[in-house]
Amino acid sequence: xxxxxxxxxxxxxxxxxxxxxxxxxxxxxxxxxxxxxxxxxxxxxxxxxxxxxxxxxxxxxxxxxxxxxxxxxxxxxxxxxxxxxxxxxxxxxxxxxxxxxxxxxxxxxxxxxxxxxxxxxxxxxxxxxxxxxxxxxxxxxxxxxxxxxxxxxxxxxxxxxxxxxxxxxxxxxxxxxxxxxxxxxxxxxxxxxxxxxxxxxxxxxxxxxxxxxxxxxxxxxxxxxxxxxxxxxxxxxxxxxxx
Length: 243
Description:
Elements: E1 3-8, H1 19-26, E2 30-35, H2 42-46, E3 56-61, H3 73-93, E4 99-103, H4 113-120, E5 125-129, H5 134-142, E6 153-157, H6 162-171, E7 174-178, H7 184-193, E8 200-204, E9 212-215, E10 228-232
Parallel strand pairs: 1-4, 1-5, 2-3, 2-4, 6-7
Antiparallel strand pairs: 7-10, 8-9, 8-10
């Protein structure tokens, strides 16, 4: 009886993978990973130089390629069928062999594997290897602490309604906005309405080749890189400030 091992790969630079993740990937004989149609897949790119020549690969190709509202009926139906199918395929494979599923960042933090994780409970042994979340690599790219003292940090999805984004941006100190892509113009408007745009950074391809770190207010409104995160740093009490 084999296992399914979900391997957190960290923010993108292979040097930031854990020793355990590196060892697991290099020793893998069966590797699965998510990707969009016509693309190699970000997780697969991270481990390009690490896989053996005899590895069997199982690309799990998403049926949708744009960031639409997570509660859209069409989105839910398409992805539910996709995850059902791959959970079944992986469970069959794991009856005989270990299957390593690659996951950018940390699997338990908005990782796509969690949709398979819930479907595989009780069917096969599952191991999850922790990874550095992508946002950590991004705020290190800015070179400023994301939060200090008693700052409240909020993680938002760019797919949220604009009014909800604005409300939460007003109510928090430090902000991380994921799933920007085609939602970036909406995120930008919400930040402006909340009075936070001038403090916002856009980090594209954090820790990876082609990394770009810019003030969000300084880029063209039509510039909507997909693999990017928006950050607003908190301004809390410094650790060495007087009590």
